[in-house]
Design goal:
Blueprint lengths: L11 H6 L6 E4 L3 E5 L9 E5 L11 H19 L2
Antiparallel strand pairs: 1-2, 2-3
């Protein structure tokens, strides 16, 4: 089953796991670094966690710690580009 043009947007995390999200830049310990498909600011990127949650606080303590560490590493890297 192939995804049509923007079909991956309906499940960004699932499509990233399946290798069908064209916006994925890198796979990190806690999630996927992705280019924003809507560019409010040039180069806008986000870190999608591996599991879908409504809030950072919904992640288990270890997942949240890994996510925040990845975010700090990812942000420092992107600021230097």
């Amino acid at each position: 089953m192939s995804m049509n043009n923007d079909q991956w947007k309906k499940d960004r995390i699932g499509s990233a796991h399946a290798g069908r999200n064209p916006m994925v830049l890198a796979k990190m310990k806690s999630g996927f670094s992705v280019m924003g498909d809507t560019q409010f600011l040039p180069g806008y990127c986000v870190l999608l966690p591996y599991v879908e949650v409504n809030s950072l606080n919904d992640l288990e303590a270890k997942q949240r710690s890994d996510y925040l560490l990845d975010m700090s590493i990812w942000r420092c890297h992107n600021e230097s580009v």
